[in-house]
Amino acid sequence: MTNVAAMTEPGYKRGLRNWVEERNSRLPASGETLVDHNNTAYLMAFLEANDDLFDHAFRASLHGQADGSQRGPADSRVAVEEAARALREEERHCTFGGGVPPAEDDRLPAFVAVERSLAHAPTRSHRKAVRTAWDAALDVESLAVQDLALAVRNLRAEASDPSCRGIAADNFVGTFSASVVNAMSRIFGTAPLSLVSCAELAMEETPAKMLALALQTREPMLDVDRVLEEIRRRLEAVTGSTARASFAGDRWEVLFGGSADGKVPSSGVVIWPLLGPNSDSREATGRATSATGPGVPTAHVGLRCSSRPDGRLVMHLRDLKATLHELGHAVHHALTASREPLRHGLESAGETEIDLLSLWLEWTVFDAGWGGCVIPAAGEPSGKGLAEWQGILQLEALKELPLRALVMELDRKWLMHPEFDYQDVWRQVTDSDPAGHASTYLEALHRLTWPIPATRPGAEYGLFWAMSEVAGTWMQRHGLASHDQTPPAAWFERILGKEPHHAPDPTALITFLEQAAGATKQDPLTADEGNPMSSTREYPSDYISAMLPARDPELTSMLRQAIVDEQLPPIQVDDNAAKLLECLTLLARPQLVIEIGALFGYSTIHLARGLGKGGQLISFEIDPKSAEIARENVSRFGLDDRVRISTEDAVSALSRMAPESADLIFIDGAKTEYVEYVKAAFPLLRAGGALLIDDAFAGGTYAVHEGGEDDRLGESIRQVVRALARSQRVTASFLGTEHGMLLAVKRGNDDE
Length: 752
Ligand SMILES: C[S@@+](CC[C@H](N)C(=O)[O-])C[C@H]1O[C@@H](n2cnc3c(N)ncnc32)[C@H](O)[C@@H]1O
What we know:
By secondary structure, the chain is of the alpha/beta class. It is built from 30 helices and 13 strands. The chain has a seven-stranded mixed beta sheet, with helices on both faces. Strands 1-6-5-4-3-2 form a six-stranded mixed beta sheet. Strand 8, helix 27 and strand 9 form a beta-alpha-beta unit. Helix 15 packs antiparallel against helix 20 and helix 18 runs antiparallel to helix 19. The N terminus is likely disordered. The site of S-adenosylmethionine has 21 residues, from helix 26 and helix 28.
């Protein structure tokens, strides 16, 4: 049996080449020549070691053609389509995501085709594209295979975008590494690969291989009951045991404070299981009035999960972080909104998110692997040594890390290198800190200093990234630093420049952390490049509503009917934003206004109220029930002469409208479709016309995702606002409503 571990040790490529040569000379009669195309030979080694693992078709696909030619991109597209068709014909969705045990898989030929097409995609500089494919591969359980094929195509498109780089790949690498190790453990009974080897491998290798290995491996899935139980335990700890939790049918409630018998809760959080890839947690809130009882400040959080045939709910590990961020914010909000401040509530609220995030950190490191962390020894190329790392770990910002637990796990995983003198490292550490300052972290440092030479750039990503994340959140909570919605990505950008796949330089990290920890406030006049959404201030809703007159009772009654009686989600614009819409139409006197997303017509009514003589508003609302209620409301306010509500899909309807015919287009539909909306809407605007984008701050509900790997909503919004704000073809400005709007006025050819 080929020793696969040998293939992945330093210099494995050389080993691989030798192996390939040896193999080709050994099997000349087969007529196949194995070529190390995109390093697929590694897989071949893997395969040779395990004849049962992959079927012949799959192996054959990894061989170069006899004449050495490779299939080109055109063939690849066809191959993907073939694969999609083959899978559709089977009327089955793929099931290799989500902890499903390996099945006797008769779909390999189809995957082979997908694999081939992926083999042409670059890796290093197009990590995001890889990530897309990987996501698709892992999500196929819930996505139809068309989506997989589409993702593969998108991957190709994205691969040509030089900005396709990012931290998301690290999650991928970690998950991939763990998957490989898990697979290997299953096969060999022990894990002959180290995570670091795998991480490096993953970073070097092609998506083809990753996808191929995905066939044999599983991303960790978490049992939702287990997640909720752990969350409850942590919340209890944070809130001084005042949290009570119950899972009731379609929702899970946590109540804080109040009387001991639980009859008078002070505040609550409702966690809604979100089934399906596109569910929006805000929409979940529409499914119920306050589940925690009248008058109880309640926050709502969505938990993306999927349902097993036995009824069990499970979630991807990678969805956990977004959920915990969101939950942290929600709990913070619920605790501070409580009318009677809880015993520990106010002090501990700010820590909640950190505490919850630690859960993610632990599970990520424990269950997914993260590729581990390498502490470079002094003088080694990717770092200056122990002292710097020690410095990092001693920083206040990192003391929140529950490293002890992490250390235990790493201990189990890594202390398999008997030649290394841990005691020596321990002595170095303790000698340098006789006061035992931050002893937990020193212990961590001791344990984390395993003997893997820093010859594998990128291997230290895992923990490094996780530390950045938690530290960034901590700093923001303590007002020490403002950072944007994607702290790790931003930090990496700063620290690593444009090449995040290189090993991070610890000195740069230390400097950055120190500056951040030392900075009380940023100079307001200094533009903070790459940190565009910094804000440590809450939106002053109380102040604004105290200033504005009380809402018109007719509008309140309309809102109550739509939200309470009709159970539509309360995701309309806030009152001040509604006034802004009215101001804008009053000001611009537009002839044609288009709205994407009417819901029950709250924004529609305000836009229409400002319309002058002859002004028309076409509002698209794809949900027929909402559209019907919107129509009734428009009519209730006597605006039917100027408003038409259409149930057509806004994107396709806009594509048929006359170019340069609209004066104002208000975009407030599905957040994931924002890019499509803008593409369809922009040509419809006349010069001087404006796009108005709701939720542009990506800072209301969307901030909570903090740029997590599944931050599709926030990412979609950020793409749009960034593009518009920087475009030469518009003049754009952010308007301060609760969720923020971006006003982008189209410039004419004559405009300077
Ligand atoms: C945030 S709500 C709109 C709220 C509304 N503008 C307000 O402030 O009162 C988004 C709405 O967009 C609708 N929607 C989503 N995708 C759409 C599409 N492609 N075309 C038309 N409407 C869409 C949804 O059904 C939902 O009711």
